[in-house]
Amino acid sequence: MEIRPYISVFGCFLIHFGLGTFPTFGNLNPYLTSYLRNRVDGTVTYGKVSWVLYTFYLGISFVHFGGWLGLQVGRRKAMIFGLSCFIGAISSTYWSIKAGLTATIFTFGALHVLGLGCAYGQLIVTAMEWFPEKKSTVIGILTSGYAAAPLLMNYVQTFFVNPNNLAPASDGYFDDPDVLDAIPSVFLLMAGVHGCFLFVGLLLYSEPKSREVENSDEPDALYLKKIKPNCQQCFTVSNLDQKGLDNTVDIKEVTNENSPGPELVESKDLAVTPQEALKTKQFYLLVITAVCSFHSVTFVNTFYKVFGQSFIHDDTFLASVGSVSSAFHALSRGLIGVIQQKTSYKGASSIVWPVIFTELIPIFWMVWNVLYNGSFHFFWYPCYHFVSRNYPTANGNIESTR
Prior knowledge:
By secondary structure, this protein is mostly helical. It is 70% helix and 1% strand. The protein has helices at residues 4-18, 25-40, 46-58, 62-73, 75-99, 101-130, 135-148, 150-161, 177-204, 220-227, 240-243, 251-254, 274-277, 281-308, 315-342, 345-358, 360-373, 375-387, and strands spanning 235-236, 271-272. The protein has a two-stranded antiparallel sheet. Helix 4 (62-73) crosses helix 5, helix 5 (75-99) runs antiparallel to helix 9 (177-204) and helix 15 (315-342) runs parallel beside helix 18.
Protein backbone atom coordinates (compact mmCIF):
# COMPACT_ATOMS: atom_id res chain seq x y z
CA MET A 1 0.00 0.00 0.00
CA GLU A 2 1.38 3.37 -1.01
CA ILE A 3 1.59 5.67 2.00
CA ARG A 4 2.17 8.96 0.17
CA PRO A 5 -1.54 9.67 -0.48
CA TYR A 6 -2.32 9.33 3.22
CA ILE A 7 0.59 11.54 4.24
CA SER A 8 -0.46 14.20 1.76
CA VAL A 9 -4.11 14.16 2.82
CA PHE A 10 -3.05 14.33 6.47
CA GLY A 11 -1.02 17.39 5.53
CA CYS A 12 -4.13 18.85 3.89
CA PHE A 13 -6.04 18.10 7.10
CA LEU A 14 -3.45 19.98 9.18
CA ILE A 15 -3.62 22.95 6.82
CA HIS A 16 -7.41 22.97 7.09
CA PHE A 17 -7.06 22.89 10.87
CA GLY A 18 -4.65 25.81 10.66
CA LEU A 19 -7.12 27.72 8.49
CA GLY A 20 -9.86 27.33 11.12
CA THR A 21 -9.72 30.78 12.68
CA PHE A 22 -13.25 31.91 11.92
CA PRO A 23 -14.91 28.94 13.63
CA THR A 24 -13.37 30.47 16.77
CA PHE A 25 -14.87 33.90 16.10
CA GLY A 26 -17.75 33.33 18.52
CA ASN A 27 -15.27 32.86 21.36
CA LEU A 28 -13.11 35.76 20.20
CA ASN A 29 -15.98 38.18 19.59
CA PRO A 30 -16.44 39.41 23.22
CA TYR A 31 -12.72 40.12 23.54
CA LEU A 32 -12.43 41.87 20.19
CA THR A 33 -15.53 43.98 20.73
CA SER A 34 -14.63 44.87 24.32
CA TYR A 35 -11.22 46.16 23.27
CA LEU A 36 -12.58 48.28 20.45
CA ARG A 37 -15.33 49.67 22.68
CA ASN A 38 -13.16 50.48 25.71
CA ARG A 39 -9.87 51.44 24.10
CA VAL A 40 -10.71 52.80 20.64
CA ASP A 41 -14.36 53.77 20.01
CA GLY A 42 -17.06 53.82 22.68
CA THR A 43 -19.83 53.43 20.08
CA VAL A 44 -18.69 49.97 18.94
CA THR A 45 -21.18 47.19 19.67
CA TYR A 46 -21.40 43.46 19.02
CA GLY A 47 -23.65 44.18 16.06
CA LYS A 48 -21.03 46.40 14.42
CA VAL A 49 -18.18 43.98 15.02
CA SER A 50 -20.20 41.18 13.41
CA TRP A 51 -19.34 42.91 10.12
CA VAL A 52 -15.90 41.35 10.46
CA LEU A 53 -17.51 37.95 10.05
CA TYR A 54 -19.94 39.12 7.39
CA THR A 55 -17.03 40.54 5.39
CA PHE A 56 -15.36 37.18 5.63
CA TYR A 57 -18.38 35.36 4.23
CA LEU A 58 -18.91 38.00 1.56
CA GLY A 59 -15.33 37.34 0.49
CA ILE A 60 -15.77 33.59 0.16
CA SER A 61 -15.84 34.20 -3.60
CA PHE A 62 -12.05 34.54 -3.31
CA VAL A 63 -12.09 30.74 -3.49
CA HIS A 64 -12.87 31.23 -7.20
CA PHE A 65 -9.87 33.54 -7.49
CA GLY A 66 -7.76 30.94 -5.70
CA GLY A 67 -8.84 28.32 -8.21
CA TRP A 68 -7.90 30.59 -11.10
CA LEU A 69 -4.56 31.40 -9.49
CA GLY A 70 -3.84 27.70 -8.99
CA LEU A 71 -4.44 27.10 -12.68
CA GLN A 72 -2.03 29.87 -13.64
CA VAL A 73 0.93 29.26 -11.33
CA GLY A 74 0.26 25.83 -9.84
CA ARG A 75 -1.54 24.83 -6.70
CA ARG A 76 1.43 24.83 -4.34
CA LYS A 77 2.49 28.36 -5.27
CA ALA A 78 -1.08 29.62 -5.02
CA MET A 79 -1.41 27.99 -1.63
CA ILE A 80 1.84 29.49 -0.34
CA PHE A 81 0.63 32.91 -1.44
CA GLY A 82 -2.71 32.34 0.29
CA LEU A 83 -1.20 31.06 3.52
CA SER A 84 1.17 34.04 3.62
CA CYS A 85 -1.78 36.41 3.30
CA PHE A 86 -3.66 34.41 5.91
CA ILE A 87 -0.95 34.59 8.57
CA GLY A 88 -0.19 38.20 7.66
CA ALA A 89 -3.84 39.12 8.13
CA ILE A 90 -4.00 37.57 11.60
CA SER A 91 -0.74 39.04 12.85
CA SER A 92 -1.45 42.51 11.40
CA THR A 93 -4.69 42.63 13.39
CA TYR A 94 -2.40 43.25 16.39
CA TRP A 95 -2.00 46.76 14.96
CA SER A 96 -5.28 47.23 13.12
CA ILE A 97 -7.39 46.62 16.23
CA LYS A 98 -5.65 49.61 17.79
CA ALA A 99 -6.59 51.72 14.76
CA GLY A 100 -10.30 50.98 14.80
CA LEU A 101 -13.11 48.81 13.51
CA THR A 102 -12.63 49.64 9.81
CA ALA A 103 -8.98 48.59 9.86
CA THR A 104 -9.91 45.43 11.75
CA ILE A 105 -12.54 44.57 9.16
CA PHE A 106 -9.94 44.99 6.43
CA THR A 107 -7.25 42.79 8.02
CA PHE A 108 -9.24 40.20 9.95
CA GLY A 109 -12.10 40.19 7.45
CA ALA A 110 -11.10 40.97 3.85
CA LEU A 111 -7.38 40.15 3.80
CA HIS A 112 -7.99 37.12 5.98
CA VAL A 113 -10.52 35.55 3.61
CA LEU A 114 -8.33 36.35 0.60
CA GLY A 115 -5.63 34.17 2.08
CA LEU A 116 -8.05 31.41 3.01
CA GLY A 117 -9.69 31.49 -0.42
CA CYS A 118 -6.39 31.00 -2.21
CA ALA A 119 -5.56 27.90 -0.15
CA TYR A 120 -8.84 26.22 0.81
CA GLY A 121 -9.91 24.93 -2.60
CA GLN A 122 -6.43 23.74 -3.60
CA LEU A 123 -6.47 21.26 -0.72
CA ILE A 124 -9.86 19.82 -1.64
CA VAL A 125 -8.84 19.30 -5.27
CA THR A 126 -5.59 17.60 -4.27
CA ALA A 127 -7.37 15.28 -1.82
CA MET A 128 -9.90 14.31 -4.49
CA GLU A 129 -7.09 13.52 -6.91
CA TRP A 130 -5.43 11.22 -4.41
CA PHE A 131 -8.70 9.37 -3.72
CA PRO A 132 -10.88 9.81 -6.82
CA GLU A 133 -13.17 6.94 -5.86
CA LYS A 134 -13.80 8.26 -2.35
CA LYS A 135 -14.29 11.96 -2.91
CA SER A 136 -17.07 12.54 -0.38
CA THR A 137 -15.35 10.57 2.35
CA VAL A 138 -12.01 12.30 1.98
CA ILE A 139 -13.60 15.77 1.78
CA GLY A 140 -15.67 15.06 4.89
CA ILE A 141 -12.51 14.08 6.77
CA LEU A 142 -10.49 16.95 5.33
CA THR A 143 -12.96 19.71 6.13
CA SER A 144 -13.49 18.32 9.62
CA GLY A 145 -10.06 19.79 10.35
CA TYR A 146 -11.39 23.29 9.67
CA ALA A 147 -14.38 22.63 11.93
CA ALA A 148 -12.25 21.16 14.72
CA ALA A 149 -9.96 24.17 15.18
CA PRO A 150 -11.95 25.65 18.13
CA LEU A 151 -11.38 22.41 20.03
CA LEU A 152 -7.87 23.75 20.71
CA MET A 153 -7.94 27.43 19.84
CA ASN A 154 -10.89 28.43 22.06
CA TYR A 155 -8.87 27.39 25.10
CA VAL A 156 -5.70 29.02 23.79
CA GLN A 157 -7.53 32.33 23.33
CA THR A 158 -9.39 32.22 26.63
CA PHE A 159 -6.48 31.14 28.84
CA PHE A 160 -4.25 33.80 27.28
CA VAL A 161 -6.71 36.71 27.43
CA ASN A 162 -8.66 35.82 30.56
CA PRO A 163 -6.61 33.39 32.69
CA ASN A 164 -8.48 34.41 35.86
CA ASN A 165 -11.86 33.57 34.31
CA LEU A 166 -13.28 37.04 34.92
CA ALA A 167 -16.84 37.83 33.88
CA PRO A 168 -17.69 40.83 31.70
CA ALA A 169 -19.16 43.96 33.24
CA SER A 170 -22.90 44.50 33.60
CA ASP A 171 -23.10 45.99 30.10
CA GLY A 172 -21.78 42.73 28.58
CA TYR A 173 -18.27 43.99 27.73
CA PHE A 174 -14.97 43.21 29.43
CA ASP A 175 -13.42 46.23 31.11
CA ASP A 176 -10.66 44.68 33.24
CA PRO A 177 -7.34 46.35 32.28
CA ASP A 178 -5.38 43.09 32.29
CA VAL A 179 -7.88 41.43 29.96
CA LEU A 180 -7.93 44.40 27.61
CA ASP A 181 -4.14 44.63 27.53
CA ALA A 182 -3.84 41.02 26.42
CA ILE A 183 -6.33 41.20 23.55
CA PRO A 184 -4.10 42.65 20.77
CA SER A 185 -1.35 40.15 21.55
CA VAL A 186 -3.71 37.18 21.20
CA PHE A 187 -3.65 37.75 17.44
CA LEU A 188 0.12 37.29 17.38
CA LEU A 189 -0.32 34.12 19.41
CA MET A 190 -2.99 32.88 17.01
CA ALA A 191 -0.72 33.61 14.04
CA GLY A 192 2.04 31.58 15.67
CA VAL A 193 -0.10 28.57 16.61
CA HIS A 194 -2.00 28.44 13.32
CA GLY A 195 1.23 29.05 11.45
CA CYS A 196 2.80 25.94 13.02
CA PHE A 197 -0.04 23.74 11.78
CA LEU A 198 0.12 25.32 8.34
CA PHE A 199 3.89 24.89 8.10
CA VAL A 200 3.84 21.20 9.07
CA GLY A 201 0.91 20.57 6.76
CA LEU A 202 2.71 22.25 3.88
CA LEU A 203 5.76 20.05 4.44
CA LEU A 204 3.57 16.93 4.18
CA TYR A 205 1.57 18.21 1.21
CA SER A 206 2.19 16.71 -2.21
CA GLU A 207 0.23 16.37 -5.43
CA PRO A 208 -0.26 13.19 -7.46
CA LYS A 209 1.18 12.94 -10.92
CA SER A 210 -1.69 12.32 -13.29
CA ARG A 211 -1.16 10.03 -16.26
CA GLU A 212 -1.70 12.92 -18.68
CA VAL A 213 0.99 15.14 -17.16
CA GLU A 214 3.27 12.49 -15.63
CA ASN A 215 6.36 13.88 -17.28
CA SER A 216 5.28 17.49 -17.58
CA ASP A 217 6.02 20.51 -15.41
CA GLU A 218 3.35 22.62 -17.08
CA PRO A 219 0.92 24.47 -14.81
CA ASP A 220 -2.67 23.33 -14.87
CA ALA A 221 -3.74 26.26 -17.04
CA LEU A 222 -1.57 25.11 -19.96
CA TYR A 223 -2.76 21.55 -19.59
CA LEU A 224 -6.38 22.65 -19.66
CA LYS A 225 -5.84 24.74 -22.76
CA LYS A 226 -4.64 21.61 -24.54
CA ILE A 227 -7.57 19.39 -23.59
CA LYS A 228 -10.19 22.15 -23.71
CA PRO A 229 -8.87 25.35 -25.30
CA ASN A 230 -11.64 27.71 -24.18
CA CYS A 231 -11.83 26.45 -20.59
CA GLN A 232 -9.73 28.68 -18.32
CA GLN A 233 -11.24 27.36 -15.11
CA CYS A 234 -13.57 24.41 -14.94
CA PHE A 235 -15.63 22.63 -12.37
CA THR A 236 -17.67 19.53 -12.73
CA VAL A 237 -21.18 18.28 -12.99
CA SER A 238 -20.20 14.70 -12.18
CA ASN A 239 -21.89 11.42 -12.79
CA LEU A 240 -24.96 12.63 -10.96
CA ASP A 241 -26.92 9.53 -11.89
CA GLN A 242 -25.01 7.65 -9.18
CA LYS A 243 -23.78 10.23 -6.71
CA GLY A 244 -25.16 13.63 -7.49
CA LEU A 245 -28.10 15.94 -7.23
CA ASP A 246 -30.24 14.65 -10.03
CA ASN A 247 -30.83 11.46 -11.97
CA THR A 248 -29.90 12.89 -15.36
CA VAL A 249 -27.59 15.46 -16.86
CA ASP A 250 -28.32 17.00 -20.22
CA ILE A 251 -24.97 17.53 -21.88
CA LYS A 252 -26.49 20.31 -23.97
CA GLU A 253 -26.97 22.31 -20.78
CA VAL A 254 -23.28 22.46 -20.07
CA THR A 255 -21.62 22.55 -23.47
CA ASN A 256 -21.81 24.85 -26.45
CA GLU A 257 -21.14 24.59 -30.14
CA ASN A 258 -17.61 25.97 -29.92
CA SER A 259 -16.42 23.78 -27.07
CA PRO A 260 -15.10 20.26 -27.56
CA GLY A 261 -17.18 17.35 -26.33
CA PRO A 262 -16.63 15.35 -23.16
CA GLU A 263 -14.39 12.89 -24.95
CA LEU A 264 -11.58 15.45 -24.67
CA VAL A 265 -11.74 15.69 -20.89
CA GLU A 266 -11.50 13.17 -18.07
CA SER A 267 -13.71 10.18 -18.68
CA LYS A 268 -15.61 10.46 -15.41
CA ASP A 269 -16.09 14.22 -15.35
CA LEU A 270 -17.74 16.73 -17.62
CA ALA A 271 -15.79 19.97 -17.28
CA VAL A 272 -17.64 23.23 -17.78
CA THR A 273 -16.78 26.87 -17.38
CA PRO A 274 -18.37 28.99 -14.64
CA GLN A 275 -20.50 30.69 -17.33
CA GLU A 276 -21.82 27.34 -18.46
CA ALA A 277 -22.44 26.31 -14.87
CA LEU A 278 -24.91 29.18 -14.52
CA LYS A 279 -27.11 27.35 -17.01
CA THR A 280 -27.41 24.22 -14.86
CA LYS A 281 -30.00 23.71 -12.16
CA GLN A 282 -27.45 21.94 -9.96
CA PHE A 283 -25.63 25.24 -9.48
CA TYR A 284 -28.73 26.98 -8.12
CA LEU A 285 -29.70 24.06 -5.93
CA LEU A 286 -26.28 24.24 -4.30
CA VAL A 287 -26.56 28.01 -3.86
CA ILE A 288 -29.87 27.61 -2.06
CA THR A 289 -28.41 24.83 0.09
CA ALA A 290 -25.38 26.93 1.01
CA VAL A 291 -27.41 30.03 1.90
CA CYS A 292 -29.85 28.09 4.07
CA SER A 293 -27.01 26.26 5.77
CA PHE A 294 -24.56 29.10 6.40
CA HIS A 295 -27.07 31.76 7.45
CA SER A 296 -27.98 30.21 10.78
CA VAL A 297 -24.55 28.82 11.55
CA THR A 298 -23.04 32.28 11.03
CA PHE A 299 -25.47 33.79 13.49
CA VAL A 300 -24.94 31.12 16.15
CA ASN A 301 -21.17 31.14 15.70
CA THR A 302 -21.08 34.92 16.14
CA PHE A 303 -23.38 35.39 19.11
CA TYR A 304 -23.58 32.15 21.12
CA LYS A 305 -21.03 33.40 23.68
CA VAL A 306 -22.43 36.92 23.72
CA PHE A 307 -25.85 35.48 24.58
CA GLY A 308 -24.45 32.98 27.06
CA GLN A 309 -22.45 35.49 29.09
CA SER A 310 -25.64 37.47 29.78
CA PHE A 311 -26.60 34.83 32.37
CA ILE A 312 -23.58 32.50 32.68
CA HIS A 313 -20.68 34.22 34.44
CA ASP A 314 -18.04 31.68 33.55
CA ASP A 315 -15.87 32.56 30.56
CA THR A 316 -14.03 29.24 30.52
CA PHE A 317 -17.29 27.30 30.46
CA LEU A 318 -18.52 29.34 27.50
CA ALA A 319 -15.26 28.69 25.67
CA SER A 320 -15.83 24.98 26.36
CA VAL A 321 -19.29 25.20 24.79
CA GLY A 322 -17.79 26.35 21.50
CA SER A 323 -14.94 23.87 21.79
CA VAL A 324 -17.11 20.81 22.35
CA SER A 325 -19.56 22.03 19.69
CA SER A 326 -16.69 22.08 17.21
CA ALA A 327 -15.94 18.44 18.04
CA PHE A 328 -19.54 17.51 17.20
CA HIS A 329 -19.29 19.59 14.04
CA ALA A 330 -16.06 17.93 12.92
CA LEU A 331 -17.22 14.38 13.63
CA SER A 332 -20.50 14.95 11.84
CA ARG A 333 -18.71 16.29 8.76
CA GLY A 334 -16.73 13.10 8.50
CA LEU A 335 -19.80 10.95 9.12
CA ILE A 336 -21.92 12.74 6.53
CA GLY A 337 -19.08 12.40 4.04
CA VAL A 338 -19.04 8.63 4.54
CA ILE A 339 -22.84 8.44 4.24
CA GLN A 340 -22.80 10.47 1.04
CA GLN A 341 -20.05 8.29 -0.38
CA LYS A 342 -22.12 5.17 0.19
CA THR A 343 -25.44 6.67 -0.92
CA SER A 344 -25.64 10.04 -2.69
CA TYR A 345 -25.95 13.74 -2.04
CA LYS A 346 -29.69 13.25 -1.76
CA GLY A 347 -29.21 10.40 0.67
CA ALA A 348 -27.01 12.47 2.94
CA SER A 349 -29.35 15.46 2.65
CA SER A 350 -32.30 13.32 3.71
CA ILE A 351 -30.50 12.97 7.05
CA VAL A 352 -29.12 16.48 7.45
CA TRP A 353 -32.11 18.60 6.47
CA PRO A 354 -34.63 16.98 8.86
CA VAL A 355 -32.14 17.75 11.63
CA ILE A 356 -32.07 21.39 10.53
CA PHE A 357 -35.84 21.68 10.50
CA THR A 358 -36.19 20.04 13.92
CA GLU A 359 -33.98 22.79 15.34
CA LEU A 360 -37.02 25.06 15.22
CA ILE A 361 -38.57 23.04 18.04
CA PRO A 362 -35.66 22.69 20.49
CA ILE A 363 -34.50 26.29 20.08
CA PHE A 364 -37.59 27.54 21.90
CA TRP A 365 -37.19 24.80 24.50
CA MET A 366 -33.53 25.72 24.91
CA VAL A 367 -34.15 29.45 25.40
CA TRP A 368 -36.85 28.76 27.98
CA ASN A 369 -34.71 26.30 29.95
CA VAL A 370 -31.47 28.24 29.95
CA LEU A 371 -33.25 31.21 31.44
CA TYR A 372 -34.64 29.11 34.28
CA ASN A 373 -32.39 26.07 34.63
CA GLY A 374 -28.92 27.39 33.88
CA SER A 375 -25.97 26.35 31.78
CA PHE A 376 -26.59 22.67 31.00
CA HIS A 377 -29.27 23.35 28.41
CA PHE A 378 -27.20 26.13 26.84
CA PHE A 379 -24.34 23.67 26.43
CA TRP A 380 -26.50 21.22 24.52
CA TYR A 381 -28.01 23.34 21.76
CA PRO A 382 -24.86 24.61 19.97
CA CYS A 383 -23.62 20.99 19.78
CA TYR A 384 -26.90 19.95 18.18
CA HIS A 385 -26.88 22.97 15.88
CA PHE A 386 -23.40 22.41 14.45
CA VAL A 387 -24.07 18.72 13.75
CA SER A 388 -26.50 19.78 11.04
CA ARG A 389 -24.06 22.02 9.16
CA ASN A 390 -22.38 19.73 6.66
CA TYR A 391 -22.74 21.40 3.28
CA PRO A 392 -19.01 21.02 2.33
CA THR A 393 -19.36 17.26 1.83
CA ALA A 394 -21.71 17.97 -1.08
CA ASN A 395 -18.65 19.03 -3.05
CA GLY A 396 -17.38 15.45 -3.14
CA ASN A 397 -19.21 14.50 -6.32
CA ILE A 398 -19.80 17.94 -7.81
CA GLU A 399 -16.35 19.56 -7.87
CA SER A 400 -13.78 18.68 -10.49
CA THR A 401 -10.17 17.71 -9.97
CA ARG A 402 -9.39 20.52 -12.42
